[in-house]
Amino acid sequence: MAQQYVDSFGARKTLAVGNQSYDIFRLDALEKAGFKNVSKLPVSLKVLLENLLRQEDNHHVGKGDIEALANWNPTAKQDKEIAFMPARVLMQDLTGVPAVVDLAAMREAMRKLGGDPKKINPLAPVDLVIDHSVQVDYFGTPDAFQKNSEIEFQRNVERYAFLRWGRGRSIIFASSRRIPASATRLILNTWRRWCSGRRKTGRLSLIPTRWWERIRTRR
């Protein structure tokens, strides 16, 4: 069922730009409703207030949440949390990888309980950025960057393989969009070599053992 939004303060308006029209939420509608200090709020709180107006649904965000922020007093003791609903989440790999592990574990648990694992999703779109620094093992030669990159992927093959596994199963919705094709080939080639080695030792599984153990023990 589609989310039902409300507009308690009549803040939703239409902005026409050329041939396009956009829904906006005007903060001055709150001032007309009696919240006289809205225009004096810090810019950061205005952004949060606009977010509350846009996300008001009487479930995650209610009329009281909007009123509490519109009445913000810097000298008063704050006893109410801001029901911030971000439109997009940006995660760095140090925090993003454990989040993917948790999603995979929850989806596996849902599958075992007979439910639909595809229902286990973040509430907001998430972009995961992989930003490892490349250690300098080779230098002073034209192919130094290529060699250092290969070593980087070899050292962290389980991390990259797990992220690729997660992306292939739609656990990661938008990951590493700017990784060059050469780096992608390196990941695949390293992953194939890793799989080949696992076949020889009889330890090949769908995802690397270290990650699988973490997923298995967190169910």
Walk me through the structure.
The chain has a 3-stranded parallel beta sheet. A two-stranded antiparallel sheet has the order 1-2. With about 220 residues, the chain is mainly alpha-helical. The model is unreliable at about 175-180 and about 200-219 (pLDDT under 50). Strand 3 (about 90), helix 4 (about 95-110) and strand 4 (about 125-130) form a beta-alpha-beta unit. It is about 45% helix and about 10% strand. It has 2 domains: about 1-85, no CATH class; about 90-215, no CATH class. Helix 2 (about 45-55) packs antiparallel against helix 3, helix 5 crosses helix 7 (about 180-200) and helix 6 packs across helix 7. The radius of gyration is 24 Å and the shape is elongated. The two termini are about 30 Å apart. It contains 8 helices and 5 strands; from the N terminus they run ββαααβαβααβαα. It has helices at about 30, 45-55, 65-70, 95-110, 145-155, 155-170, 180-200, 210-215; strands at about 10-15, 20-25, 90, 125-130, 175.
Rg is 24 Å
Which residues sit in consecutive blocks of at least 5 with pLDDT less than 50? 173-180, 198-219
Helix/strand class:
mainly alpha
Query: How much strand content do the residues show?
Result: 5-15%
**Tally of individual domains:** 2
N-C termini distance: 29 Å
Strand order of the largest sheet: 3-4-5
Gross morphology: elongated
Mean model confidence by pLDDT: 76
Query: Helical element count?
Result: 8
What descriptors fit this protein?
two-stranded antiparallel ribbon, disordered C terminus, 3-stranded parallel sheet, single chain, mainly alpha, 219 residues
